[in-house]
Amino acid sequence: MQTPDGQEPDRRTVHVGSVTGSAFAIGDHNTVTQHQHAAPADETQTELLRAVRLLRADLERFVPSDTTQILDAELVSVEEEIETGGAAAPGRLARLQEALTAAGALTGTLASGVAVGQALAALLGG
């Protein structure tokens, strides 16, 4: 096969073993976007992040309601804030605590809901 100008194309071979924690592109005109996630600032933020993820998974098993949707939105916001900044701000934590309290009849029966409440108490001093 020849290029339009009659020349042989440049044949290149790419071999990739394994890649972890990186982004790459092969070929012409590729764009790579890599999203960096901050590590949680401390063990309490790590525990909150773990509990938030578990509670979100537990909430998926229930029929959505206004209360669970508001709670899930706050859980998403806290998760994103910890992942991108290393910690959730006190105002964000207070909003999550309000949503958790509003969903108390449901979340109080879930181990993950209790864990989020305990993590919030540790971070907010309550």
What does this structure look like?
This protein is mainly α and 126 residues long. The protein has a domain of 82 residues. It contains 5 helices and no strands. Helix 1 runs antiparallel to helix 5. The chain is elongated and about 75 Å long.
Topology, please?
Layout (H helix, E strand, L loop, with lengths): L42 H17 L6 H20 L4 H13 L1 H4 L3 H14 L2
Helix pairs in contact: 1-2, 1-5, 2-3, 3-5
Concise synopsis of the structure shown:
With 126 residues, this protein is mostly helical.
Helix/strand order: HHHHH
How much of the sequence lies in strands comes to under 5%
Strand pairing plus helix content: what structural class? mainly alpha
**How big is the Rg?**
23 Å
Largest sheet composition: none
Distance between the termini: 73 Å
Instruction: Report the principal-axis shape.
Output: elongated
User: What is the percent of helical residues?
Assistant: 40-55%
Specify the number of helices.
5
How confident is the prediction overall: mean pLDDT? 84
Low-confidence stretches: none
How many distinct beta strands?
Answer: 0
